Amino acid sequence: MVPMNDNCHWILRPDIVSTVLNDGAVLLDLRSKFFFSANASAWAVALMFENGTTFAEVYQACERWGASPRDPAIQALLDQIKAEDLIEPSTNGNLAKEPISSISWGAPILTKHRDPLQRIMVSAFDPGLPLAE
Percentage of residues in the chain with pLDDT exceeding 90? Predict the structure, then answer.
């Protein structure tokens, strides 16, 4: 379990890329090739890690956005982000400012998709695919 008062600054790994969707985002881990879908609340938290933040700052921001104090869903999200190795310690100190001033808060959900990219992508040169006529 990630300590809530951990003062270490964390940043998204440079090989995590994201695409914003209407109600959240999709993150792709280029190392593992796994996709993650983030709802709006999880995406707001992930944005804090783009420039570096502490877990305590994440909790404070989530409370300003409408989360209850010490919400276990935030702890679960931080545990998952760390367990999936999406963040790494930052040596730049505190660069984070909340990138989002307000959101419609809901429990943050980060869903890891079952198949990695190499199992979803198909090649036009795959002999198992029918030729276009």
Answer: 62
